[in-house]
Write a structure and sequence with these properties.
Order of helices and strands: EEEHHEEEEHHEEHHHHE
Strand content: 15-25%
Oligomer: single chain
Largest sheet: 5 strands, antiparallel
């Protein structure tokens, strides 16, 4: 993309769903990103979890984006994945992370998404969300079953966990291959299968990057649009979302995989409409 981009305001906030936050974010000159390390629903937790991987991927992406500002995003992500996974011996069990990146110059804005995080582009009176639905298309029968059980009041019981373990097994079998889905993990080539968009900077007023835990505010009614994210104070918004989950402890109203998800938002303001001070 190259250096020399416009002056912007970047705001970010993150809130852990439990004791450990597996989300990460970073931003610099002409770039920003959010990551969401994948949770494990196995009976024993792996030595290297999603947080371990997301932290390593964050550091490698910062290195690559800083050192190679004119290189293609696919090449930068590919190298970062290669370096982030190098310390994990077994590619089959390597933890994974979603990824949503924004890059910009004086002329162009680019967004790039792997996995179920979102990059929302806000322009004039319109907005468009760039998201990757391929992961959500894996094992729809299991997703329907665990959500139906929650809606019927069974809560996060042992059968719920067993269904999530089956779902993760099906996901692992479809990971980083045609007909399945693509994610940052052990395969650098996954970088070339992202969902993305490029638009003239003149058309963009703001970009919102959100992990799926934060994006659920749209489902829960905490906000009614991506533009509302851009106008909001981010930390109170995430706290309100956490409180909404707390009010639905059995996940009857909003069936979901766990009681609380990690939540991360990052807003990049290019225009006066959404201009606010960093917090």
């Amino acid at each position: 993309m190259g250096p020399g981009g416009p002056l912007v305001t970047v705001r970010a906030a993150t809130l852990a769903g439990g004791e450990k936050n597996q989300d990460r974010f970073a931003y610099g000159d002409g770039w920003a990103f959010v990551l969401d390390g994948a949770s494990s629903f196995g009976t024993t937790q792996p030595e290297h979890d999603g947080a371990w991987y997301a932290e390593r991927l964050k550091n490698k992406l910062v290195d690559e984006l800083t050192a190679r500002p004119v290189d293609a995003t696919t090449d930068i992500v590919s190298k970062a994945i290669e370096n982030a996974s190098a310390a994990h011996d077994d590619p089959e069990s390597c933890p994974t992370s979603t990824l949503a990146i924004a890059r910009w110059t004086n002329e162009v804005v680019e967004v790039y998404v792997l996995g179920d995080s979102t990059a929302a582009l806000i322009h004039s009176e319109q907005e468009s969300a760039v998201t990757d639905s391929r992961l959500a298309a894996i094992a729809p029968d299991l997703r329907t079953e665990y959500r139906s059980r929650l809606a019927d009041g069974h809560g996060f019981d042992s059968q719920h966990r067993a269904l999530l373990q089956q779902l993760q097994s099906r996901q692992e079998a479809a990971r980083n291959q045609g007909g399945g889905y693509w994610i940052a993990g052990a395969e650098p080539g996954a970088a070339h299968h992202a969902i993305g968009d490029r638009l003239p900077l003149s058309k963009i007023e703001a970009i919102v990057l959100a992990t799926d835990g934060a994006a659920s505010a749209l489902e829960y009614g905490t906000v009614d649009s991506w533009a509302a994210f851009a106008r909001s104070d981010l930390r109170p918004l995430l706290e309100a979302l956490h409180e909404a989950e707390e009010s639905d402890q059995q996940a009857i109203t909003w069936p979901r995989s766990k009681a609380h998800d990690d939540k991360t938002l990052l807003v990049i303001d290019f225009g006066t409409t959404y201009q606010r001070q960093s917090r």
